[in-house]
Amino acid sequence: MSTPSPAFRARIREGLGNAVLQEALGRATRSFLISRLKALSDLPDAETVRDRARAIRAHTIAHLDRYLEQFAQEVERHGGKVFWAATAREACDYIVSLARSRGIPMVAKSKSMVSEEIGLNHTLEAAGIRVVETDLGEFIIQLAGERPSHIITPAIHKRREDVSQIFQKHLGMPPTHEISEMTAAARRALRQVFLDARMGISGVNFGIAETGTLVLVTNEGNGRMVTTLPPIHVALMGIERVVPTWEDTEILLRVLARSATGQALTAYTSFLTGPRRRGEPDGPEELHVVLVDNGRSRWLGTPLEEALYCIRCGACLNACPVYQAIGGHAYGSVYPGPIGSIVTPMLGEGNGAELAYASSLCGACQEVCPVRIAIPDLLVRWRQMRAGSLLPAWERLGLRGYAWAARHPSVWARIGRWAMALLRRIGREGWLRRGPGPLRAWTAVRDFPVPRRSAFRDWWASRKGDHR
Amino acid sequence: MSHPVLEAVRRRVTHRQVPLGPAPALPFDAPPGSEAVIQRLWASWAEVGVHAFRCATEAEAIRGVVAWLRERQIRQVLTDARTARSYPGLIPALEDAGLAVMSGTLPREEGPRYLGLGRWATAEAGITEAVAAFADTGTIWVMGGLGGARCASLLPPVHLALIRRAQVYPCMAAWLREARASGALMEWVEESSAMIAITGPSRTSDIEKVLTLGVHGPKEVIAFLIEEAG
Ligand code: SF4
Question: Are B130 and B97 in contact (CB under 8 A)?
Answer without folding.
Answer: no
